[in-house]
Design a protein that fits this description.
Blueprint lengths: L51 H5 L4 H4 L18 E4 L7 E2 L5 E2 L2 E7 L5 E10 L9 E4 H6 L1 E3 L12 E3 L4 E6 L2 E2 L8 E10 L10 E10 L6 E3 L5 E7 L14 E3 L2 E3 L6 E5 L23 E3 L4 E7 L24 E9 L2 E10 L3 H5 L5 E2 L4 E4 L11 E6 L9 E2 L1 E3 L2 E6 L3 H10 L12 E3 L8 E5 L5
Parallel strand pairs: 13-26
Antiparallel strand pairs: 1-4, 2-3, 3-10, 4-9, 5-6, 5-8, 5-11, 7-9, 11-12, 14-17, 14-29, 15-16, 17-24, 18-23, 19-20, 19-22, 20-21, 21-24, 24-25, 27-28, 27-29
This protein binds zinc ion (ZN).
The site of zinc ion (ZN) has 8 residues, from loops.
Length: 461
């Protein structure tokens, strides 16, 4: 299991455990999949008018991209901002297993001039607040690790700065956190410091600091769900937060905008008694003891899609490049719609064992939390058996907005020692060491974080 995100668009160069697309092959009930999610403010087919994304997508990016307006009655001051900022999907708070309340989202920066600009730092602040430490700030190598310049040509030399050529767009992945739900600001500002090697014109200084891209914070609560798996020592691969994992980096241009359906997706693999992901022949599905594990519905709901036509991949390597169509990346899968607090959510269970989904459920079927929806497999774009699971605001696993969720109960065993340790466990069968002094014990209503090792219990139907 690879943990590092690739710098290219996931749609075009997906990471091994990355589910980038399943739209075309779905048997999505009652909708035409692709046109249904044209904009984050338009609920996907099957969603309600007050779907989570609708509530969380507030002002249009262009309206919030200028400097914050004043509090007086007159028009806002006009501030020249050669770097434009926008947030397409307003963040929704979610509590992680470290107790922090995270706001995970993306900031798009555009160089509105014709000369290169280097982004020196990006800071997140509560809207209207100029005092105190920012909620999150990146500069230097940290900013490089948290950002991607769209259209940048890969080069042998690693970039040393986030530089946007004239007209170029860059993305910064942000996930500020606060101590309690009560500390979540109503809105966020972004303070961007940038410099031009050559001032683009007399109106623009060589160095600028802008406060831009005010975005409201969604008040829609994270979905509270049961675990889709049961058993001890499940490892969270590629989940949120505090890094741009393959899932968070899956920035897919679809239907005229970027979609990040996998923002909170997790690839689940289970450690055996020796803390290995597999034992023996890496290319044999039988070496992965958890292969075929039952996968359970996370909530009462309705099955809206079942796709079950693909074989398992041989484990141990990525599927050959070009061997999968875009709509086959998720392998065999089930999508379930469920409702909480008047909001529709969609649960996506992917890479299922061939035949297991269609044997368990059918489109239109009402199911209960804990019902089996399939078995863990290795179909689609997968190099080792795992369950890819995420929650989104529409039925299309690709053209949706990824939403946060929490498990009603789980038990923390610990955390993997490092991303490299996960790669070694997946790559060579090494035992996975856990970080010393890591968090342990039972939790309620928390989202598993990247690299968590947890004991899980599905609902009892
Ligand atoms: Zn995945």
């Amino acid at each position: 299991m690879r943990t590092t995100a690739r710098p290219a668009l996931s749609l075009l160069a997906a990471s091994a455990l990355l589910v980038a697309c399943t739209s075309g092959a779905s048997t999505t009930a009652g909708s035409t999949a692709l046109p249904s999610a044209l904009a984050s403010s338009t609920p996907a087919a099957g969603g309600s008018a007050s779907a989570p994304s609708s509530a969380s997508s507030s002002a249009p990016p262009s309206a919030s991209s200028s400097a914050p307006d004043g509090t007086g009655s007159g028009p806002a001051a006009e501030v020249l901002t050669p770097v434009l900022g926008a947030v397409d999907d307003s963040p929704a708070p979610v509590t992680g297993t470290d107790g922090r309340v995270y706001l995970a989202y993306e900031l798009y920066l555009t160089n509105a001039t014709s000369t290169p600009v280097t982004i020196d730092s990006v800071a997140v602040r509560p809207a209207g607040s100029a005092d105190g430490a920012p909620l999150q700030e990146f500069s230097g190598s940290d900013l490089l690790a948290r950002s991607r310049v769209i259209g940048a040509t890969p080069s042998a030399a690693a970039p040393t700065a986030m530089t946007l050529q004239g007209g170029q767009v860059g993305v910064v992945w942000l996930d500020p956190s606060v101590a309690t739900p009560g500390d979540v600001p109503a809105a966020l500002d972004h303070v961007v410091a940038a410099g031009f090697a050559q001032a683009p014109n007399p109106l623009v200084p060589a160095a600028v600091t802008e406060t831009i891209a005010r975005t409201a914070v969604s008040r829609v609560p994270a979905a509270v769900i049961a675990s889709p798996l049961s058993g001890d020592r499940w490892l969270n691969g590629n989940g949120c937060c505090n890094a741009v994992t393959a899932h968070r980096g899956a920035l897919n241009p679809i239907n005229g905008r970027y979609h990040l359906a996998e923002r909170f997706a997790i690839d689940w693999v289970q450690l055996n008694a020796d803390d290995q992901i597999y034992r023996g022949d890496k290319t044999d599905l039988a070496s992965y003891a958890y292969y075929g594990a039952p996968i359970h519905a996370v909530a009462d709901g309705e099955v809206v899609a079942v796709s079950d036509s693909l074989p398992d991949q041989p484990p141990g390597a990525d599927p050959p490049a070009g061997s999968l169509q875009v709509d086959q990346f998720g392998g065999n899968y089930v999508v379930e719609r469920f409702t909480q607090n008047g909001q529709d959510y969609y649960a996506f269970y992917a890479h299922l064992k061939p035949g297991s989904g269609s044997a368990a459920v059918t489109v239109g079927q009402q199911i209960s939390a804990g019902d089996q929806v399939g078995a863990l497999g290795n179909s689609g774009n997968s190099d080792a058996p795992h369950l890819h699971f995420h929650v989104m605001d529409g039925p299309n696993p690709l053209a949706s907005n990824g939403l946060p969720y929490v498990f009603d109960a789980l038990t923390m065993v610990g955390r993997a020692a490092s991303p490299a340790a996960i790669d070694a466990a997946a790559g060579s069968g090494a035992a996975l060491p856990l970080a010393t002094g890591g968090p342990t014990g039972p939790r309620t209503d928390q989202m598993p974080l990247w690299m968590d090792v947890v004991d899980l219990q599905a609902a009892q139907p």
